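Hello support,

Our group uses your service weekly, and this is the first time we've seen a run hang past the timeout. The protein is DUF2189 domain-containing protein. I'm not sure whether the cause is the sequence or the server load. Input pasted verbatim:
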Amino acid sequence: MTEQTKQAIEPGVKLWLSRGWQDFTRTWKISVMFSSIFLVISLLAYWQLLQLDLGLVLYPFIAGFMVVAPLLVTGFQRVGRMLHEGEQPGFMDLLKGVRETTPGIFFLTFVLCVCYLIWVTDAMVIYGMYFGVKAVPINAELLADPVLRESLFSYLMFTGLMGFVIAQMGFMVGAFSIPLIMHQKMTFVAAVFTSVATVWRHKLLMFRWALSLALLMLSTLMLALPLLVVVLPVTAYASYEAYVDLLQQEDSTDH
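Update from on-call engineer: The timeout came from a worker crash unrelated to the input. Re-ran successfully.
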């Protein structure tokens, strides 16, 4: 890759999010309709856990969402490709994107789901260590009681550190694997190798990209859940733009 190309890629995070927003504005009706499915599922899960006074259990589930999030955006990947090709996608194209799953994507789904289950299971074990089997409602007493407060901070710290490691592994594997399998018809092994190699080659840029995605998604899931219908498609389209810049343009430059 030439120095000029590197300089064009380096400020990619803002550029990718800007392009992702532009793609969203061009398809906002179908994008909101599709992402509303995940919003309804999330609302039901939140409501059920809060009804059982298990609000703290939301934390590992929300954080672990970053591990499997790439699997939710296959439809947006298809629409992003269509926009680049000058086509006007419809709602059915989002559903067809989900149907474009191949054995490679199914196996990737299995790998990321195993990572997610490890993360959630270990988080539940840590929860049991600090709070036992009793439900701990989120209220003023949780912060007012010194013992509960110390347990809360320890629980958040240890599960956060563990989740960070697993999320990094999931990000390296899943960052570009799905678009490579979908758009370039790569095998699972080749796609994962290319994804990990690309993340490693652009370590600083990918760190900023992963951090940006995590902050956007976690703040949305924790503080402003209804905005998921906007944030999910924007970040999904931005991820496609990252794939185009780092892999499609890089390949054309090398050739």
